[in-house]
Amino acid sequence: MHQDLIRELSVITEEEQSILDGRQGIDQQLYTEKKELVVDSEKLLKRGKLIEVRPHTRFVKFPRHRHNYVEVIYMCQGTTTHYIDGNEVVLEPGDLLFLNQNSEQEILPAGEADIAVNFIILPEFFNMAFSMMGTEENTLKEFLVGTLCGKNEQTSYLYFHVADVLPIQNLVENMVWTIFYDMGNKRSCNQITMGLLLLQLLNYMDKMETGSSRFDTELTGNVLKYIEEHYKDGSLSELAELMNYDLYWLSREIKKRTGKTYKELLQAKRMSQAAYLLTSSRLPIADIIESVGYDNTSYFYRKFKERYGAGPKEYRKGV
Q: Residue 170 in contact with residue 2, Cβ under 8 Å?
């Protein structure tokens, strides 16, 4: 991150000075009017704004709390230690953390040289970003949408180790710079930048942790990425071999972690890809059926109609 921006973010805030002067704990009134510590977007966002950025408050332990907005944390330098639904997450420089709205978070005190920024984001801010990800449905997009909008109760956070990915670092810094210095047209700029950021992150799901441990990465990011790339001829047995897991154990864990079986995830991807090709190409339906991995035409027609309420021909005409 640019050193001028680091210097600006390092300035002791009024809140931090109060802590250094002897205040015990955070001033809860800065974050919520309620007895329960649910950090309120109305306290941190000016009326009409969908996104804001603020330096992470140092020198004090932030007690267990939740948010009524999406929080994204970017570690500029140093480290911070977080406990999210009981799971320890240590952010290193360049790391990016997306928190589900339903997750509970606790943060250990940060030192003066530990600089992080918190993005306070209302879910509707992501509307443009999701539209930029295309009309084609995919399991990775569904995973991101569910987590960011608080609908995925199984995933507390998305933790990306992307310090070595220059495009992602540049995009995050651009957003911090635009908001922190109150640049013109910042809403449009940042909504587009967020869209580009999510598109980049889709390419690095192997650098993501979710939920409770690193193997969740394999059972979310790697499983979903495998299906995205091998939906035509991939198999659960091949995936188990690639991931070095027992076939039956992996099958149970996929169901446990995603709420769907491997077959259900695969079929959802095949159907969404077929729907995409029906509306974006003039390929014959028989070729589309083959291209998404089906050799039983009647079975495909039946499953497609169950999912979309119309057969392939009617779907193509209707859209």
A: no
